[in-house]
Design brief:
Layout: H1 8-12, E1 22-23, H2 34-50, H3 58-76, E2 83-86, H4 89-99, E3 107-111, H5 116-129, E4 132-136, H6 147-154, E5 159-165, H7 177-185, E6 193-197, H8 209-212, E7 216-220, E8 232-236, H9 238-241, E9 254-256, E10 262-265, H10 279-295, H11 298-317, E11 322-324, E12 334-339, H12 345-354, E13 357-358, E14 360-362, E15 367-371, H13 378-391
Parallel strand pairs: 1-13, 3-4, 3-5, 5-6, 6-7
Antiparallel strand pairs: 2-8, 7-8, 9-10, 11-12, 12-15, 14-15
Helix pairs in contact: 2-10, 3-10, 4-5, 6-7, 11-13
The protein binds pyridoxal-5'-phosphate.
């Protein structure tokens, strides 16, 4: 047992949403800690008391923005100047997708496990810039096969970008990011850049992004990090930044002359930030990150997630009429399973919700997904297993 487990109950009491349900939807949205809610309210109140628009407030806005960038950067093990603050994962992906200097005929490679919002954005850049898009089969490597070899096989001389998730949102598979980046950067004459959808990995995996060599890594604070909805980020490596133009542009990303005229873009990731945001939300994400750190290191949190998801996987695997997509214990917190007796998955999800147990359906592959966090209790998992058994 993790040494920090003894204080898990009191730690969980800091998350109001966890008090009255068995929560397994962290991959959709994490519960916000009370300290984050309080900090958000206090920050709004201060802005309204002292400002809102005046000299006393500017340094505060600047400071909160910088502190948030620093807190995120230290979770990702990168320097703060590589971080762009965004609203969510999808905005970060769009900054990378629209900022590349596309030429007609360039190829974009993506897996068959990407999120519909990202697929749609790639569909639109394909139409606008006359690109070629190829989709390679990744789902079939969940239990056997080599995802890196599958990618390598589908890279072409004209491939300019690979768009891929670090943890697949549907099956929970964790991909070997450093190896993927390596084969992409070594592809023939022209290195292929790698855009990662990190919706399901930030707040789960211990990360050292600089070591992976990844070009673009888009994430959010409102899922596994349990921050407020509305604050996310994008990491762009210093090398990749040289070729990535800002698409949406505003005062926050530019430099100005003494007489207020735009003179260029800021040097770091700030160049992709646009304009006014809700600064109090930044405070909320900082509080959430600090709270996770007070419980354990990134490694300790990940180990706990793996132990608990293995426990859920084992329990579900023993139920007749239930098939876990993975044939071995999960590598992270997502546990996806199907009912083999033909009952609709949506009905199971509704049944569980009526029992105060929150999971979700996934459409492709048609399955039910439970997210296990380090905050999850074994007793919650027991409740989920018993309810699935009862229904199935
Ligand atoms: C893999 C993946 N990508 C993108 C998204 C969209 O996230 P956001 O709303 O933060 O843009 C999600 C959310 O469910 C996701 O799981």
């Amino acid at each position: 047992m993790n040494p920090n487990n003894s204080n898990l109950s009191s730690h969980r009491e800091k998350f109001p949403a966890l008090a009255n349900k068995a929560y397994f939807n962290y991959g959709g949205q994490g519960p916000l800690p009370q300290a984050a809610l309080d900090a958000i309210y206090k920050s709004f109140q201060k802005i309204q008391t002292d400002g809102p628009f005046c000299g006393k407030i500017w340094p505060l806005v600047q400071e909160e923005t910088n502190l948030t960038r620093e807190a995120i950067a230290s979770e990702l093990n990168v320097s703060p100047e590589t971080i762009t603050l965004t609203e969510d994962v999808t905005v970060g992906c769009n900054i990378a997708l629209w900022g590349i200097d596309w030429q007609p005929g360039d190829n974009v490679l993506l897996s068959d496990c990407e999120h519909p919002g990202i697929i749609a954005a790639i569909g639109e850049i394909q139409r606008r810039f006359n690109l070629e898009v190829s989709v390679f089969p990744l789902m079939e490597t969940l239990n056997e096969g080599d995802p890196v070899a599958a990618i390598e096989k589908h890279l072409k001389p004209n491939t300019k970008l690979l768009a891929i998730s670090h943890i697949l949102w549907n099956t929970g598979q964790v991909l070997p990011l450093a190896d993927i980046v390596k084969v992409c950067h070594q592809n023939g004459e022209r290195p292929v850049k790698v855009l990662v959808d990190a919706a399901q990995s930030v707040g789960v995996l211990p990360l050292n992004l600089a070591e992976t060599g990844v070009d673009f890594y888009a994430f959010t604070g409102h899922k596994w990090l349990c921050g407020p909805e509305g604050v996310g980020g994008l990491y762009v490596s210093p090398e990749a930044r040289k070729d990535l133009s800002p698409t949406f542009i505003g005062w926050r990303g530019i430099t100005v002359s003494k007489n207020g005229q735009p003179t260029g873009f800021k040097t770091g990731g700030q160049r992709y930030e646009i304009a006014t945001s809700a600064t109090p939300l930044y405070k909320g994400l900082q509080e959430a990150i600090a709270l996770h750190r007070s419980w354990g290191t990134a490694e300790e949190r990940y180990e706990q997630i793996k132990q608990l998801s293995a426990y859920l996987w084992q329990g579900l695997s023993e139920i007749n009429n239930v098939n876990c997509l993975r044939k071995t214990p999960p590598e992270a917190g997502l546990v996806s399973f199907t009912l083999t007796n033909g009952k609709p998955h949506k009905d199971l999800v509704d049944f569980l919700e009526s029992r105060g147990i929150m999971v979700r359906t996934i459409l492709d592959p048609d399955c039910v997904r439970a997210s296990v966090h380090y905050l999850t209790l074994e007793s919650e998992i027991d409740r989920l297993i018993a309810a699935v058994k009862e229904y199935s």
